[in-house]
Amino acid sequence: MDYPGNSQDMAVPPVEGVAGGGTAYGWNDGGLNVSNPLKGSIDPTEVPTADLVHVWCLPSTANVGPQEVPRNLEPVNLLAARNERESVQLAIRPKVSWSGSSVAGVVQVQCCDLCSASGDRLIVGQSLKLRRVVPMLGVPDALVPLDLPISQISLQPGETTAVWVSIDVPNEQPPGLYEGEIIINATKADTESSSQCLGKAEKHQLFTELRNCLDALEPIDGKPLDEVVERVKSSTTSLRKVLLSSSFSEFFSDNGPVDMMDEDAISNLSVRVKLSLTVWDFIIPTTPSLPAVFGISDTVIEDRFGVGHGSSEWYDALEQHFKWLLQYRISPYFCRWGDSMRVLTYTSPWPADHPKSDEYFSDPRLAAYAVPHSPVVSCNDAAKDYLQKEIEILRTKSHWKKAYFYLWDEPLNMEQYESLCNMASEVHAYAPDARVLTTYYCGPSDAPLAPTPFEAFLKVPKFLRPHTQIYCTSEWVFGNREDLVKDVISELHPENGEEWWTYVCMGPSDPHPNWHLGMRGTQHRAVMWRVWKEGGTGFLYWGANCYEKATVPSAEIRFRRGLPPGDGVLYYPGEVFSSSKQPVASLRLERILSGLQDPRLAYVLDMSVNLNA
After folding, report:
1. Environment class of residue 196 by beta-carbon count within 10 Å: exposed (0-12), middle (13-18) or buried (19+)?
2. 495, CA 20 to 30 Å: which among 16, 200, 294, 313?
3. pTM of the prediction?
4. Is 1.20.1250.20 the CATH classification of the domain at 49-190+266-283?
């Protein structure tokens, strides 16, 4: 576990999940070596990178903040099934500053394919991806993609920077041991992209010269040969002038252009992180065994991205969010709230007879889909006719078994409960086998069903029957009394198709599992463990993009007032962090994926053990 030139001796307490954690990382105690032989100005191309930075690895459940204490660098050994994602974190902290600017220095991070002895590969950019961990409200959370296979990271003095490394194992990947490495090199500050430091005047000059080249070359059709030759010569001269300008000086030496670092320098001076992944010979099924339905606010998308409801841009924006979230084994639904917590929910914005709806609902990654009670986009048909037609079409499809109707969010009084029952009755008039989902944490406040609040909560199924088939209860109700779960289950009639799902939102709070910002990584991951342990058959989360209203895609993310930080926000607009339009995942979303994979993995492993017994 020790590498020549990579010694980083120190003694710190083990991290949760690191020592003795099965797929975690080894641990060697050592004495802290505070001596530093470096003197004077530092040229990172002539000094081992290990003398300039600490590099170490941490599990995906660790929250790596700027003051994270360095540890020993040891090889990373991961285990994964096919169709599973495994992740680990790489931490980098400067020992000294060498840039001569406000940053401590710049490191170049390079990764390569993971290869097996038989020549099979897990390819960089497809299976292997790197993302920088960016704090939100001072807490590590956003995962901003890095360029591959090589990227540069600026390090701040006295601060630890984390890189999230994830490996997706395809369904068809041959089992076996895959090995590779991530190479880290300290570089000179002036090797950073010159475009980041160009002044406006210099940018305009470069723009003008390049445009003049294009103008000279474009209108050459039908021109005499000698004129074409003259134009090419003129453009060549201008392009050479641009390339030889000071903006690109770092790419040239007396002998012409050179690489930023030659191979020998990389080999001798680099910190090399050994990475191995054992791929097991079984597959996690594409269709999740436990439906996890997550809400996406369509109004948030409309406001921030400036797309009109029902426009072609609106459909495109919703489709991007839907397809992006499927990779997390989540079944997304779009939603907008009405009066008194009445909610319009739908998985497809298109009518049931549209080919796109059939494409969405038939996707094997989708475990459940929401059917709207009324039109998503205004149409000529009356709402009643619309519902009848939608149900008639969907009931003829093989995917109808995935369908559910989510009509009201947490009804609180008799008026709301009665409105919910009336809506559900209309659905069941057209489809007696339809599943209506209702979220709740209490009975009607103005008509107590029992002497105590918890007893009234237990009586809700009796009160809602036969208008609800999926009883979705808040985990907050149970508090520290996990034994109360059996009381809830005893009130249901699974033989009649009734199901018990759960949800989290503002509660439960620490120390229980939830997805609030700043909770421990194991709390984030354990939300789905709890569902599996308690015997739930599904899970709902109210919102994944419900930050405060903004009208510009790149606007600062602000969490909603009155909610715990992070509640209702599991991913961010890519435009907040770069020019990319791809959503940016949170640490919490990655841990949700791990939590969804874990029970299925445990089931497959248990089956394997029993078969081999």
Report:
1. exposed
2. 294
3. 0.83
4. no
